[in-house]
Design brief:
The protein is of the alpha+beta class. It has two helices and six strands; from the N terminus they run αββαββββ. The longest helix has 10 residues. It is globular and about 45 Å long. About 25% of the residues are buried.
Length: about 130
């Protein structure tokens, strides 16, 4: 893992970089989705370098806002995300990464980061 976020130019393809709409912190949300089931797994943050690494290595790289470093999903947990495709949303301010998730996607050990705190279900809407 890289310990300090670089402000130098990234190796990201300039055509891709020109399309991205980043937040003031230079980051875009990245949604990880299981490629074959459509299951939404997690959300992380990427800057240009994290996106470049994701596109070129075939493994998801994120920027940790709390640790201020890059991290590759699975390097410490063994729960890898192998990239199948990467797309921008219609506003170019969010990245969708379709992955083959090995093991849990959430740091809590749940399959997804959205398993534990369901706010509403179809059976209970409007009640």
């Amino acid at each position: 893992m890289t310990s300090i976020r670089s402000t130098a130019a990234s190796s990201l393809d300039p055509a891709v970089a020109a399309r991205l709409k980043r937040g003031a912190d230079g980051l875009v949300p990245a949604i990880a989705q299981q490629y074959d089931t459509g299951e939404v797994l997690m959300m992380g943050w990427m800057d240009d370098e994290a996106l470049h690494r994701t596109l070129t290595t075939g493994r998801c790289t994120y920027w940790s806002r709390s640790r201020q470093e890059y991290w590759v999903k699975g390097d410490t947990s063994g729960h890898f995300q192998y990239v199948k495709s990467v797309a921008l949303d219609c506003d170019a301010d969010t990245v969708l990464v379709k992955v083959d998730q090995v093991g849990a996607a959430c740091h809590t050990g749940d399959r997804t980061c959205f398993d534990a705190d369901v706010l509403a279900t179809e059976d209970h809407r409007g009640q």
